[in-house]
Amino acid sequence: MMARIFSGIQPSGELHIGNYLGAVKNWVQLQHQFESYFCVVNYHAITAAYDPPELQRRTHEMAVGLLAAGVDPSKATLFLQSQVPEHTELAWIFNTITPLGELERQVAFKEKAAKQEQVMAGLLNYPVLQAADILLYLAELVPVGEDQVQHLELSRVIARNWNARFSPEPPYFPEPQPRLTHTRRIVGLDGQSKMSKSLGNTIGILEEPESIWEKLRPAVTDPARQRKTDKGEPTKCPVIYPLHQAFSPEATVHEVETNCRQAKWGCIDCKKSLLTNIVNELTPIRERARDLQSNPARVTETLEAGAAKARVVASKTIRHVKEKMGLPLASNGG
Ligand code: AMP
Ligand code: TRP
Q1: Helix %, strand %, coil % for the chain, to 5?
Q2: pLDDT per residue over 17-57, tens digit each?
Q3: What is the value of pTM for the model shown?
Q4: Gap from CA of 315 to ligand 2 centroid (Å)
């Protein structure tokens, strides 16, 4: 049997090059080697304040972005979390075997909670739902960016706790491992924080070249390069050099290194070269997205078909879990 992978993404609207390079590009490659489940996690999204019609719009837009980026529904199962109720069912079960202390020490929780006046239980329990997402499919690998490593550690604790209590030999749930890429943490245009929609420091994968240029042009570079004739060090360039490494051919990356160190290029020259390479990669994605946007019903149908496929696996796992826990099933097997 082909090993399974699972990953999720929040419906923040348009994909940006951070979550594209950190995760989604990897999904597109891995879908050829693994039985793949990719989920737009709208139940996770409602742990932050939101507007219902806006959430629905962003969820659809995220699905468009994923399909345009190359997630292929004939290879991978792409679906919406809210259309597979077993996710929340398993999350409840996992809540009963997750130590509170493990949740309270999650960095993502502490960061988000610090910004809120009143912290809801859903925010604390967010990683329990994430563990349920993954383990429902008995997935062994989870292609994500670096910021998700701690959540995955917790998924392994949850798998271990549940196995120890209800199915020690053989252990029922695998302990899922992160599958990171070289571009596991893309810095935002501010050159400081991780690229993130909520920080407004992103480049969207569907942005027009002119708009991408407006963002690249003022981006910070190595502070040593005040004038075009000042020599620089690419590894001190927080945004442009890492993006060259992600988008440009190897020969161009070498050219960038030499031309920066010898001050043969100004930063604007370097940024123009980067723009060309970003646009080369994103143009076909933008064109596919335009096509998908003109047919929203097709996208909705793809997601519904994905949810139906996902439920076949999810309901089997829930059946096994309930049987082992002494929880009677509904007469329809659910
Ligand atoms: P999110 O958009 O926050 O739901 O994240 C979706 C996926 O993209 C997760 O696997 C994240 O780890 C990854 N990701 C998000 N932002 C970045 C970033 N700036 N750099 C690398 N990976 C990222
Ligand atoms: N917490 C992840 C993020 O913010 C999204 C997510 C939810 C996820 N469930 C998942 C990622 C399961 C991987 C596997 O990016």
Answers
A1: 55, 10, 35
A2: 999 999 999 999 999 999 999 999 999 999 999 999 999 99
A3: 0.96
A4: 21
